[in-house]
Design goal:
The structure is a homodimer.
Chain A (H helix, E strand, L loop, with lengths): L22 H8 L3 H9 L6 H14 L5 H8 L4 E6 L7 H12 L5 E6 L4 H12 L5 E5 L5 H10 L3 E6 L7 E5 L1 H14 L5 E6 L5 H16 L6 E5 L5 H14 L5 E4 L2 H13 L9 E3 L16 E3 L2 H16 L9 E3 L3 E3 L8
Chain A binds a DNA duplex (30 and 30 nucleotides) through helix 2 and helix 4.
DNA sequence: GTGTTTCAGGTTACCGCTAACGAACTTTGC
DNA sequence: GCAAAGTTCGTTAGCGGTAACCTGAAACAC
């Protein structure tokens, strides 16, 4: 029995392959060994210009697409970076992704995104899936992970960069801002501007550790001035302008004495702004406002809401840089820590006139 | 020379592997063959409950993570679906992704996202990269692709679903809405409500084929009523409220006679709304407005801007369903076409009072 | 002319896993 | 009691590439 009796229908240009092409097909078509084809396609090793041209021509005319699965297995190099984030619809992670892509585009690495929906169990699953592809690095949001997740990451022996947050203990490298500090700075500024009756509006914080840390920093700094948060309002589900409106209405009905509203993100802060304006409340004279994230879309409103830029793009860029440089060997060691500065933007809603 | 002289430091629980674990490690630890371990881990074939338990225990205690690269090569099954979209920061693709994930979560498949930034060359690159992982299916936005891209897709012999748009010729399956029709319906409704002096504001449309088709449908339907678009205003770069404001200001300065503004997306439409309201213009009495996408955040404004829902989630769901069912064999054949209904939402800005 | 490099390319042995087959042992039927 | 049919598990041979080594011919030195 011959081993060569498979039906092989090679197709020129027409592009209707029955059986996926392999290196062998290209090697036959160009009359050299598979190894030489491999060398040409990866620009590695010594190949004469003549054969190189021959091989490239054959590969192109066949429409050969290399099989990275096989390549990765053989070379045990996988040029993927796992990026694990809680959500895409968040307005913050697309920015982080942009930063990551900017850097990885100049490297052989490619990001692969996994979304956890703020669920630790889901994070564990996604992480397991991702690690089973043996990526060159992992970037993941936050410092809080299940024990199993931490164990997997530690034993995976790949560069790990935890992003967004620097308040806590990292597995390996970290890039982010201190949310506790962001909360403190905002609190100090609010008090400095003369506001005293302060309300807080945000997500139910059991899931969102960064919002919680901001809140902790916030109340801590207020406490130091002898001030307490007067009232709080929480929501769950996604952020929206409408939610910001409703929450603002509710908290003000309950606590009409409030003179400042601190929101856990810009979307609900903007909703709050719209509500206050329509209720004929003077912003920032009667009530001041602040959000968080430094979202670009705040620029569109009649008043620029005070906020704090979370340096999202930079976080993405730095995280990707660490992975890229560690994976090409230009950066040695582990455990790098990059703490970026949250930049306060006073806008128009954090000053009494 | 023995082949077994590699330094192997097995680590229980502590998770500080020197050498990544393989099936063999688990097989040794549990005293069965690699094949049996493989069967247990994939829930396939006959394994007694006793050995199953033994193997699972060993795998867990070692912290074994299977190597999908090797598995995929051996079984020539790769449970990845390539999803290729123009942008993440768009507010529309996150919704599509949500739909895709909803469906794929109930299947063994996993989405992998690639972003093209509306560039055909980049699309070609990303596609090549993705196909070299031999995915089980490809979902990509739009019907317009480079010749090389089309050739790759055709010869890849995997299910391909082009999404968002149904106006044109598909490579294989399509799921989307007719943007031409969406434009037409909006035009008819605008005229029906009595508006006559109509302006258009949108992206430079050389890149964005769907915006172009909407515009074509729009002008076509207007023409049938003997009406022409009075003035147009274009922008490039990302959409933002601020841009919507500026553009609206400019077009109204140039053409103060306008009584309706049709925007190519909801973000700039909302910006326009804010501008008009602050300029003391009566909306929709003096000037009417409409956007496109059915974005949720429109609900937060004092007036609900008229828009047309693009069924983004459903598009994602249906596309994923086609891939999933074709890949598990429950759906036969190729070239499925699903045209969804764009739903007009009149809101408050498309009625003269 | 002989020995040493250099260059261009081929050979061989895996990478870690799974499909396909087959063997040993147990159960069932009569 | 023995053959037929399960059940459970092991063996073998790749999947499509690449690392590492090897070979033959040409180029160079002296």
């Amino acid at each position: 029995m011959s081993g060569d009796d498979k039906v092989i229908s090679i197709n020129k240009n027409t592009g209707t392959a029955k059986r996926p092409l392999t290196l062998k097909d290209v090697s036959i078509a160009s009359g050299v060994s598979e190894m030489t084809v491999s060398r040409v396609l990866r620009n590695r090793g010594d190949v004469s210009d003549a054969t190189r041209a021959k091989v490239l021509k054959a590969a192109k005319s066949l429409g050969y697409v290399p099989n990275k699965i096989a390549g990765a297995l053989a070379s045990s190099r996988v040029n993927l970076v796992a990026v694990i984030i809680p959500s895409l619809s968040n307005m913050v992670f697309p920015d982080v992704m942009t930063g990551i892509s900017e850097v990885l585009d100049d490297s052989p690495l490619q990001p692969v995104v996994g979304v956890t929906n703020y669920s630790p169990e889901r994070e564990e699953q996604v992480l397991f899936e991702m690690l089973s592809w043996r990526p060159s690095g992992v970037i993941l949001a936050g410092l809080e992970h299940s024990d199993a997740s931490v164990a997997m990451l530690k034993s995976a022996s790949v560069p790990v960069v935890e992003i967004m947050d620097t308040d806590g203990e990292a597995i390996d490298a970290v890039v982010g801002i201190s949310h506790r500090r962001a909360g403190r700075e905002m609190a100090r500024q609010i008090v400095k501007m003369g506001y005293r009756q302060i309300g807080f509006l945000g997500t139910k914080m059991s899931m969102d550790h960064r919002a919680r840390k901001r809140f902790e920093g916030f109340t801590e700094a207020l406490a130091r001035e002898g001030i307490e948060v007067v009232d709080q309002e929480f929501y769950d589900g996604g952020s929206s302008l409408a939610k910001g409106r409703e929450m603002s209405a509710r908290i003000l009905e309950r606590s009409p004495e409030l003179d400042f509203l601190y929101y856990s993100n810009d979307m609900i802060a903007a909703g709050g702004l719209l509500h206050l304006q329509e209720s004929g409340i003077d912003v920032p004279g009667q009530i001041g406002l602040a959000g968080f994230n430094g979202s670009e879309f705040l620029e569109g409103f009649s008043l620029q809401v005070a906020t704090m830029d979370a340096a999202r793009r930079d976080i993405g860029r730095e995280a990707a840089r660490i992975i890229a440089e560690r994976s090409d060997g230009s950066l040695q060691g582990t455990g790098q820590k990059i703490e970026l500065e949250p930049r306060l933007q006073m806008g128009d809603t954090l000053r009494r006139r």
